[in-house]
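2024-03-11 09:14:02 INFO queue: dequeued item Rhamnogalacturonase A/B/Epimerase-like pectate lyase domain-containing protein, len=366
2024-03-11 09:14:02 INFO validating residues
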Amino acid sequence: MKRSVSYVVGLILISSLGAGPVHAQTSVALDGSRTIGCTATGSTATVVQHVPAPKAGARTDSAAVIQKAIDAASRRSGGVVQLAAGTYMVSRPLVLRSGVALKGAGKSTRVKAGPLFLKNRGPFGGHPLITTNGSTKVTISDLVADQSGDTLNGNTPYRLNEYLIDVRYTDNAVVQRVTTANPFTYSIAVVASTNFCVRNNFTSVSTSGKYNQLDGIHIFDSSVGVVQGNTVDQGSGSDGDDGLVAHSIGEPVHDVAYLNNKVRGGRHGSAMQIAVGAAGAYNLTIKGNRFWGSPNGLITGYYGGRGPVKNVEVRDNVFQDNAGRSVDFFGAISQIVLAGNTACRSGSFNVTAGAGNWIDGQRPSC
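2024-03-11 09:14:37 INFO prediction written
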């Protein structure tokens, strides 16, 4: 599903760099670099409904009471569902409605998949812990989202239909200060959505030999967003895959910025992958990140097609202790800019020929 959003597109013309149209959130400095801010507001509601935590050690199913509070807030044209410190066991996915913010008290609030969680499915047949499913102006913040993949057997036939935090068919979403734990799917996914901000979250993988395809933050067929200030560590256990992903299948990923993230990809993946099929990716900014300890740094990958990858700025990143190449771009690529990146005990920078590609000022040492 493709939703529309009104925004202003700026233009930058730098003939030596071959740069084209840039993000709605972008201003351009004199050196040609882009400065990007998040335009998503998420829920702007101020009315708060408190949901008390169950008593410590209780096995009470909190799914019904939390969902009831979410639904009631949405009927009031929005509201804040405030979870207290404590552990909320849920037996089914929570569906966030339009105008609602689901907030905790920080890391002391844990929403956790309970023992019956796999008996229920989300709107698309998977097992998301929290999904937005077509809502608008939503926020998920200040909590731990625990999918219980360490104790549940999440290897169901529908495991990858939906994801731990699943922002889907949504316009204007904010996911911030969320810690994901024990995933058996991607940790945070934005699917077929527009105008989003994923910032200051923490994802990790701790299992070994139990799952595959455990990506950290996965942007899927989505546009106009910022992924900023996150700590992504898919390498604590051996099951981890890519840290950050820009992934196009039916629609291109475009006008997305990845800024100031600290990322370790897992054994099965890279720190970041631009993954495309027939649809491509364009207008991406990858700036100020630290990509470390991964099989590869930043790569392109192709799945069922060779869609174009164009107008991608890779600037001022640090590639540290990656076993393979720091950057490996190949395929139908054009207008790729690499500037001011550092490789510290990490591999080479490789960009195959393409119109408007420009590489300058890479530092091949610490």
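2024-03-11 09:14:37 INFO annotate: The chain has one domain: 26-44+93-360.
2024-03-11 09:14:38 INFO item closed
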